Amino acid sequence: MKDLVRCAWAGSAGVMQDYHDAEWGVPVTGEAAYLERLTLEAFQSGLSWSTILHKRPAFRAAFEAFEADAVAAFTDEDQARLMQDAGIVRNRLKIAAAVTNARATVALREDGGLERFVLSFAPEREVAATETVSPESTALSKALKKRGFVFVGPTTMHALMQAIGIFDPHDPACFRRGS
What we know:
This is DNA-3-methyladenine glycosylase I. This protein is an all-alpha fold.
């Protein structure tokens, strides 16, 4: 797949290209998959996505495969332990946000769950590949914040919507466009 036209950020062979070719823009299902993507997008803020992808196996181990009940039960001691884990991004606020968001995810089950909630903000229009924020991601951000989520700004939620295939995020010339 070396000669295929890709989105510009996919770069050369490696983790970014593999992610682009196999995962980015592909719909996911299940609470843990949504919580993982939401958490990783929050951790990515201010960092490169490549850093997050390289650390993803360690994130999955540290955050109990993103099972909301397990992460929601994390104590202050668990969070302190994660601050010592060199395999993940050691940012106290982002670690606390992951726990807060897991708790908010558990609470959201009463209203159909995280997956259903996020999908309810899917755009009914064509989203340009160059957009980094949208009316839908802004609305999702505000709604999640009202539900107790943190580190869910409009740009981060737009990246989430791209990553989980709520709309086709690929450049018009990209071989993945429309797939």
